[in-house]
Amino acid sequence: MDFNIVIAGEAGQGLKTVEAMLTKTFSRHGYYLFSTKDYMSRVRGGHNFMQIRISDQKLEGPDEGIDLLLALNEESVEIHRSEMNEDGTMISEIESDENDIVYIDAKGLAKDVNPRAVNTVFVGAAFKIMGLPTEEAEEAVKEHFADKESIIEDNLTLLKAGYEAVEQLYNLKGLGKKDDRMVIDGNSAVGLGALLAGLSYYAAYPMSPSTGILHYVASKQEELGIVVEQAEDEIAAINMVLGGTYSGLRSMTGTSGGGLALMAEGIGLAGVTETPIVIADVQRPGPATGLPTRTGQGDLLFAVNIAQDEFPLMVLAPKDQEDAVYQTFRAFNLADKYQLPVIILSDQFIGDGSKTIKEIDTSDMKIERHLVDPAEVEGEYKRYKYTEDGISPRAYPGQLEDNVVLSDSDEHDEFAHIVEDAETRNKMVAKRSKKMAKLKKEDLLEPDYYGPEDPDYILVGWGSTAGPLTEARKMLADEYKVGHLAFNDVWPLPTKEIEAKAASGAKLVYVENNAGAQFDRLVRSETGIKADYNILKDDGRPFSGREIYRRFKEEVSK
Amino acid sequence: MDFNIVIAGEAGQGLKTVEAMLTKTFSRHGYYLFSTKDYMSRVRGGHNFMQIRISDQKLEGPDEGIDLLLALNEESVEIHRSEMNEDGTMISEIESDENDIVYIDAKGLAKDVNPRAVNTVFVGAAFKIMGLPTEEAEEAVKEHFADKESIIEDNLTLLKAGYEAVEQLYNLKGLGKKDDRMVIDGNSAVGLGALLAGLSYYAAYPMSPSTGILHYVASKQEELGIVVEQAEDEIAAINMVLGGTYSGLRSMTGTSGGGLALMAEGIGLAGVTETPIVIADVQRPGPATGLPTRTGQGDLLFAVNIAQDEFPLMVLAPKDQEDAVYQTFRAFNLADKYQLPVIILSDQFIGDGSKTIKEIDTSDMKIERHLVDPAEVEGEYKRYKYTEDGISPRAYPGQLEDNVVLSDSDEHDEFAHIVEDAETRNKMVAKRSKKMAKLKKEDLLEPDYYGPEDPDYILVGWGSTAGPLTEARKMLADEYKVGHLAFNDVWPLPTKEIEAKAASGAKLVYVENNAGAQFDRLVRSETGIKADYNILKDDGRPFSGREIYRRFKEEVSK
Amino acid sequence: MVDKNIYQADRETAWCPGCGNFPLRTALSEALSEMDLKPEEVTMFTGIGQAAKMPHYIKVNGFNGLHGRSIPPAVAMRVANPKMTVIVESGDGCTYGEGGNHILHNIRRNLDIIHLVHDNQIYGLTKGQASPTSMAELITPVQTHGVNAEPFNPVRFAVGMKASFVARSTVGDREHLKEMVKEAKKHKGYALIDIFQPCVSFNKINTYQWYNKRVYKLEDHDPTDHAAAMKVADKFGDEIPIGVIYREEKPTFRERIPYLKDKALVDRDVKVEDMEYLIKEFK
Amino acid sequence: MVDKNIYQADRETAWCPGCGNFPLRTALSEALSEMDLKPEEVTMFTGIGQAAKMPHYIKVNGFNGLHGRSIPPAVAMRVANPKMTVIVESGDGCTYGEGGNHILHNIRRNLDIIHLVHDNQIYGLTKGQASPTSMAELITPVQTHGVNAEPFNPVRFAVGMKASFVARSTVGDREHLKEMVKEAKKHKGYALIDIFQPCVSFNKINTYQWYNKRVYKLEDHDPTDHAAAMKVADKFGDEIPIGVIYREEKPTFRERIPYLKDKALVDRDVKVEDMEYLIKEFK
Ligand SMILES: Cc1ncc(C[n+]2csc(CCOP(=O)(O)OP(=O)(O)O)c2C)c(N)n1
Ligand SMILES: Cc1ncc(C[n+]2csc(CCOP(=O)(O)OP(=O)(O)O)c2C)c(N)n1
Ligand code: SF4
Ligand code: SF4
Ligand SMILES: [Mg+2]
Ligand SMILES: [Mg+2]
């Protein structure tokens, strides 16, 4: 069972509320969900839509084709008509003879109850058409409009009105509530991972599509007693966050491409001062302003080479919303362990999209701050002490009695004082690079491999393409021996697995959401291995598994 | 004949004046010069030195070992003693029995004449010791202190006093003035190339070691009637320069690593708005503040991947001061032809260093603006018109009657209006990438190759290592069959020559002034070719040919 | 007079119905037409935001650059072409937030530009976070307990800096706004107009009504009296004055570059031959 | 009283002999000692420049960050540890030039910090270009015909913005400077001291003598009177007033975050278990 619902209309028409109610309800009915948002860089008008895919099986990405369209305005019928599946249905306010359109007089029904709640009529109608009972939807309405009695009342009335206005067409049935699952969007997931890791200070400047992280952590600031600060610009944000860590707080910022560009110098500062920070880059297409509300994976090489000269840096890309929680948590521990900046490369696809995932399991989550034990500091404190593994004792001001803590952006000696001689420079460069060596040895995640042991083809992806690639692999499995290599850590690049796979003789098919095959170039620069095929997409829209399947057949196995 | 002079002392002691007088004089005597500056990031005190190497043969870099030391303070004798060549001489105010020290009572001699001109005593002594007549030095004094009669007088007196106070030790002789040569530092060279190209607007924020460009072009602003504006920050600078080109002016900015980081977003803006600009990055070691007055080649991968997502961009690296003039000129023409940002990767080594070069020959220098011919614009002007080669007609506001000129940082249509649809996005990405394809075909410079046809080893370098590598190759030539591949254009990367050389089976020895072998990684990512050996140096000091020679023997042919 | 319709591009806008950006655009078109400026005689520089989309919706030359960077690209046009009318326009977030350093220093440059700030006291395009001018009590998804900083009063800031022309207006009074634009154009030097522009989607405090109830036209105010101007500038509460608040004639950016005179740098005729002498200087 | 010598690190400085940075450092050390602050109880945030090298030459906690970015890293310390004395210090170029946007917005935040600006009216470390505060007539290798912009008057700017404490002092009067530092420390909220600090190497206009001849101590001035403060702030010519020019008590950054109370965020005890409930919210 695999059912694809699209809610379409103008910006400002309340699509998000409809999505929220549907999502909650399906989830309570025990369905797996995967939703994506396609919206324009504007506040009202234009054409936006959200896709909710539901299934009794775990879902890993969006699919093409629409089973049920909630057309909140007339235009939407025209726009999406060609995508309708054969038995698909459109709920619309257009009176029409065509039998794939279910007419509903939503405005008429809402007029006397509450015209602003007109969308709930669509929700009610949708449930009836699908054959689902409304109890869970009623619950969802109550939770969504919490605190506002009269509004809840109106929405419940309209839910019922919608339900009663149409006929049942499908037979979806509830599957029963499953308690080990949750539904989360990627931006909240990054925020949640950070909060679980003990985030105390988040400073950022709003920028689509990263603002969801800011909003989520801000919504928790009071109850957790942490500080979320809106900076005057991204340069302030990154420097605030450096000050946060220096002051002893787990600190993070989030942005998108243009903001990341403004943070470049500050990320280098984190490198040379060895200040652990976490930066989320929720990618959107560029260059410059580009397509502000769309998705892409065009910042990879930029992130890996983010500032002048060289310094320890880690870049990792969550594979989906679930992974985003764990990877963000991990990012904080690794930043602290190696005293370096960690960039999390997310994107609009997972950032704005939601997915049913297994409930986050915290049993292996340990906050590891790696701060110096004051008892171990003897004599004058050396912030940049030479050590075997390059990691120096890190303290924050006020932590050590009778000792001050100095941090410096110039090349410096062990005490953080400015130096210019070649000898100290060489020692400090060596010290910093030892940290990368250790990181590679101890903490780098090799990509996950899924598929047969002797594949003819291997789909290679990084970050958010993992889900669509999983689906594509399954579709291809009937016809080909095809595996899937899914990278999490992209810098430093884990090379063992890809080298082994390349050596096996399987054809490598890189699938990336950018125009320049950036991951292919990165892998090649580190290993010499080159893709045999590149399936690329750079139009701001995510891949679906079906699309990859099709393009594989068109471009790879012709 | 190859003679190495070092002038050493504190910052603020006037080393630059001594260097200027010596340089001018040697040049007038017909010598080839190569000078480098080693100075600290401070205004007074510390230890600075300048090296002037002179020869009757063309020089390509600095050398080790000192023949004549002008020790302007006592400390300098100690610091440089170990570097003295066997027959070397030190001029110093220290009374000493050691016979490599020539004592001179400079302060005493200057006391009654002009204590501030004490250094000129050293200059006079130096010429006597070397066996050179003083006429040319007198000319140099007069030019250097132009307009200040009494100061000229004092300096001439002290020049003579110094001359008379010591004995001749060497026998250098004048070679006679050569009129087809000039001496120029790399920063002025970039500025000169820009001015010749018709630079009308230079906006920048001071940053070592790039400030020399700013100072040079500013010194010419009034006489050329152009505008040099000190921006409030580098973000302003890059956006000013974009506005400059948009307004119809050839525009440029210059900075170093940290400033380049702040310009990243603006360079992406140049990419998407297709606004031709030239950016000089005079590299210094980082990360962050790093070593502000030293040299390095650590910004390569940063420059190549300078901003979010992908856009047409060219990065080129001048090989020496002469090349800097021509390459900068070329950068403007290419920026205009392809409507893209061009980054010139210079560094402190050539930026602050001076060299005797062949007089710049302007006969092949043609300013090519590639602006639209208004007569060819029919109907509504399309700034981003789709064309076969991706290059659209560029106009500036006011240039076209009855037509406006719009430029946009969002993804846009041919008229520069914001779009969000996938189709236009794909078309515009394709249009922009066609420009890169054309650039690769028509204008990319393959690296120069020097050496035997069937080398066993090839030294591979980019930008400013060209000179030292030339010298190293010559030293190695007696013992090995060794060639030298010198890259100018580094992005897009010209691949033909390196591919041919790699295929020949010669061992590739990459020599770079950075820690991470960035060029090796870049070449590998584009061609799969990897260095057989990497000779790297990242301590802020330039290579000398001799050092490369030695390290070749230690690390390559062991 | 240039037909005012020429400015109103027929493109669909991305603005919300009822947004204050519409009357602002109308006032601007009318002012341009009444000042008899042809589209190609005007260049508009904007940043990013809802306000900053203006050059797509009005027909003049336009450079729609980066968020926060509306002013820097305008500097060159002032030296390139003294005859061009230059308008810098953007939102309050773009101008006073991300771009704060540029307004600070361009007040000092005293470029001859018309600077229009759509002050809706909110970040519109990114959906409702506090802008520098937001009221302290504004609750948003980020400012969950109000703003962590005092609101920025752009007029007091600019008058404090002795910007050469500082005015405030509101889209609620189109005639007034038009008048201010014309005054700004007449003024030689930098001219800031902070314009109240209600955001009907996100700012539920500073509505049309809120502004209409509070604004009053300055009368008997001498804008050349700095102390008086400071007092007026400080008023931002139950009563908010609109009009020209401060004005001071002083040297413009161009005038400080004496050798430019009235040359348009864009007309500079460059020949490599003429610069050969530069090469000789290195001999 | 903490021994003042404890602050004077014995490291060699990179400052020029005779530089105004030396007396500034002495005054600061003495003030710290007289206020009885131990080195570990003070944290200094600086940018890049000659002035910004201060934490290498005085013994307190120090974060020597990027050019222009002395203030942003200090924000967190204010929430992390309310007991820490926080000094932000840098040059005029770093603070008012590259970092202009941060001073603009941190005046609004009203962080409880002491902000010391070494105002030598020049870019020292990069060898003598104009800074925002340079006089219009300054000739430099870049400003070959003088500065293309009006000089920035930081005091007028800050008073215009109603910063909660604005003072001016000079290294020529060490006692006065010390006094100002102590006043700034006493003041709850943001406290700016713009300090005249002659650059003997590059600024041949604004010398010790130049300042000494002009400065006079404010008397009979009520720093809580904004109009009076604006008048005083505007004086920058033959006579230049020093002292506390403006003062206004208002909510600090911490106070605007009500739930912080007097908690030091650095002491926050975080346990993953305590946050399990966040996970449940997504079910
Ligand atoms: C460098 C950068 N940071 C952030 C953004 C995201 N962004 C776009 S518009 C905007 C704020 C818009 O507010 P304002 O300038 O007041 O304009 P309005 O939409 O209210 O008209 C922000 C933060 C961006 N585009 N670029
Ligand atoms: C991003 C960046 N831009 C430019 C510089 C170069 N720079 C270092 S210090 C300085 C100016 C210093 O002037 P000021 O802040 O007044 O300090 P002073 O040296 O006069 O004490 C500049 C431009 C830099 N380090 N980083
Ligand atoms: S979000 Fe606000 S400012 Fe933007 S268009 Fe809508 S109403 Fe206008
Ligand atoms: S350059 Fe000027 S400010 Fe810097 S140390 Fe020297 S005298 Fe002081
Ligand atoms: Mg706004
Ligand atoms: Mg200064």
From TrEMBL, chains A, B:
Keywords: Oxidoreductase. GO terms for molecular function: oxidoreductase activity, acting on the aldehyde or oxo group of donors. It holds the Pfam family POR_N. Residues 11-164 form the Pyruvate/ketoisovalerate oxidoreductase catalytic domain. Coiled coil: none annotated. Gene3D superfamilies: 3.40.50.920, 3.40.50.970, Pyruvate-ferredoxin oxidoreductase, PFOR, domain III. GO terms for biological process: response to oxidative stress. Residues 193-430 form the Pyruvate flavodoxin/ferredoxin oxidoreductase pyrimidine binding domain. This is 2-oxoglutarate ferredoxin oxidoreductase subunit alpha.
From TrEMBL, chains C, D:
Its cofactor is [4Fe-4S] cluster; Mg(2+); thiamine diphosphate. CDD domains: TPP_OGFOR (cd03375). Residues 199-261 form the Pyruvate ferredoxin oxidoreductase beta subunit C-terminal domain. Gene3D superfamilies: 3.40.50.970. Keywords: Iron, Iron-sulfur, Magnesium, Metal-binding, Oxidoreductase, Thiamine pyrophosphate. It comes from the Bacteria. The keyword Metal-binding applies. Residues 51-195 form the Thiamine pyrophosphate enzyme TPP-binding domain. GO terms for biological process: cellular respiration. SUPFAM superfamilies: Thiamin diphosphate-binding fold (THDP-binding) (SSF52518). The keyword Iron-sulfur applies. GO terms for molecular function: iron-sulfur cluster binding; metal ion binding; oxidoreductase activity, acting on the aldehyde or oxo group of donors, iron-sulfur protein as acceptor; thiamine pyrophosphate binding. It holds the Pfam family PFO_beta_C. This is 2-oxoglutarate ferredoxin oxidoreductase subunit beta.
